[in-house]
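Q: Here's a chain of 161 amino acids. Please give me its 3D structure as tokens.
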Amino acid sequence: MSKTPFVVAEYVRWGDIDLAGIICYGAYIRFYELAETEIFRACGLPFREMFERYDIWLPRKIMHTEFYRPARLDDRLEVVTYFSRVGESSLTINFDVLDATGLSLHAAAYQVLVCVSRQDFAKVPLPAGVVQAVERYVMDSETAREAGKRWLDAPRAQPAR
């Protein structure tokens, strides 16, 4: 199976910007949450179904972002999303936020999600079904960024505003 990152497009909205007219740092979290939700859905694991089926939660242990270039109101951003590590009880999910041309990196982030029981929040192993489902999106940053650039060059529909 060919490895490719998951890519979602979204515009910088009025509520994302500050008085300087650029995106607030915290607004990037909205982009990450959108991309995370959709990559799991693309894996056949919509959150509600996954959490109920496996009786788990995936809270964040680490959230790390590096900022490179500010985005502005109505900029279309592409979030290249992939898993760089699947451990026994955790996943590392990565987000590269690019402009619509794929030439400018606005932010790069990763989050470590820890698998815990819904009853007592004790750490538990990742269910085999989750590990299998995310496998097609597991890759290193270099592979993901190269594949993401190819995706950005391909014709596609514009997201709704």
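Q: Can you summarize the key feature?
A: DSSP finds four helices and seven strands in the chain.
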